[in-house]
Amino acid sequence: MSLKGRIALVTGASGGIGTAICRLLASQGCSIALHYNSDQDGSDRLWEELEEMYSSQYGSKFVAHQADMGDYNQVRKLHEHVVNALGPPTILINNAGSTGGHSRVTSVDSVPLDDFEKTWRINCGSAYLLTQLCMPAMESEGWGRVIFISSAAGFTGGVVGPHYASSKAALHGLIHWLAGAYAKKGVTVNGVAPALIEETKMLPGSSAELSSKIPVGRLGRPEEVAETVLWMVKTSYVTNKVIGVDGGMFPQ
């Protein structure tokens, strides 16, 4: 399936996984809206790289937009800016995520309710809102892809904390409902649940320590998550799935 000319919105584009996803989608001819929150330098570097490599080759356009995904008004403005700059996206990659400043939580008392709710807004609420905003254009076109970057913590509880695990598990329920509701309208909805991916900010320990616990004996690479995402974007017969990219740690 050709993706040339498709418009994609990737949240959390300046992080390791987000950057790898953007590079792969751009290599397929997509125009991309790069969302970032605080890493403007990383976003600028990625924008320059994609412009140089793909704008003349495919006629693609790339734009970057800042938004705090914990603020729903900013999320709405993000979507508005993307539509005005590129057109309505029919590929939505909900990748932005946060641990809320807490990791290796051992007591439920360690995460205040405000931090719990903010983590949910960033990890789940903003993804739901963007899906609401993008879905009408996908329905109208009869083609769309919504992919949520979840976490193995959504299956297992993980080691970050209850705020993070519950927000990621909620994405799985959202995927299952959306996939059933929109399958006959040409829109597929899937999730990728990574664990222990290098070049990310969510590694709970040293590379050597963590690698020893993974069946394949190494950390995952952002590109391996991105390749799974690209496969989900290109196929039309896979929907309602959450696939772990975890080196064999958690059988499904």
TrEMBL record:
Signal peptide: none annotated. One of its GO terms (molecular function) is 3-oxoacyl-[acyl-carrier-protein] reductase (NADPH) activity. GO terms for biological process: monocarboxylic acid metabolic process. Its EC number is 1.1.1.100. It catalyses: a (3R)-hydroxyacyl-[ACP] + NADP(+) = a 3-oxoacyl-[ACP] + NADPH + H(+). It holds the Pfam family adh_short. CDD domains: SDR_c. Transmembrane segments: none annotated. Keywords: NADP, Oxidoreductase. Belongs to the short-chain dehydrogenases/reductases (SDR) family. PANTHER family: 3-OXOACYL-(ACYL-CARRIER-PROTEIN) REDUCTASE, 3-OXOACYL-[ACYL-CARRIER-PROTEIN] REDUCTASE FABG. This is 3-oxoacyl-[acyl-carrier-protein] reductase. It comes from Lophiostoma macrostomum CBS 122681. The lineage of its organism: Eukaryota, Fungi, Dikarya, Ascomycota, Pezizomycotina.
